[in-house]
Design brief:
- The chain has three helices and eight strands.
- It has a four-stranded mixed sheet with strand order 1-4-3-2, sandwiched between helices. A four-stranded mixed sheet has the order 5-8-7-6, covered by helices on one side.
- By secondary structure, it is an alpha/beta fold.
- 18% of the residues lie in helices and 40% in strands.
- The protein starts with a strand and ends with a strand.
- The protein is globular, with a radius of gyration of 16 Å.
- Strand 7 and strand 8 form a beta hairpin.
Length: 141
């Protein structure tokens, strides 16, 4: 897998959120012209992307904001975790409580609560920028 693409309404806020999570900004670009039009099956695409890389270099997120055509909102606006489609992105963290605290400063909201799985992991789900569900896992055993 090369990357996971996520459409966001505020690129700077999404970059700040994922940077706080420990990802590194690999690069930014403006994307427009016939290639994205043909690839996406849309006309007049103008977008900005930010490629975020995990610290180990093995995973990437491509954050995209569309200038034209305007992005559309899925219904419901913040779908519950059992909605069909891309469910969430999960990250391993060293300290789940500290990570939640830092991400809350970027608007993250805890879905449910932090829970423990078989004395091996502490787990939780957060809703981040543009309604993205981000899961966190802290290995404890």
């Amino acid at each position: 897998m090369d990357n996971v693409g996520i459409v966001v309404d505020d690129l700077a806020a999404a970059v700040a959120f994922f940077t706080e999570l420990g990802m590194e900004l690999e690069g930014e670009a403006r994307i427009e012209g016939t290639v994205p039009d043909q690839m996406l099956g849309l006309d007049g695409v103008s977008s900005a992307i930010a490629m975020m890389r995990t610290p180990d270099g093995h995973g990437k997120l491509e954050l995209t904001t569309f200038h034209t055509p305007a992005a559309i909102t899925a219904e419901p606006l913040n779908p519950p975790p059992h909605t069909l489609g891309l469910h969430r992105v999960m990250f391993t963290v060293d300290d789940i409580d500290d990570t939640i605290s830092r991400l809350r400063r970027h608007g993250a909201e805890l879905l449910g609560e932090v829970t423990e799985y078989e004395n091996v992991y502490r787990l939780c789900n957060l809703r981040g920028p543009s309604g993205i569900i981000v899961a966190l896992a802290e290995r404890i055993g």
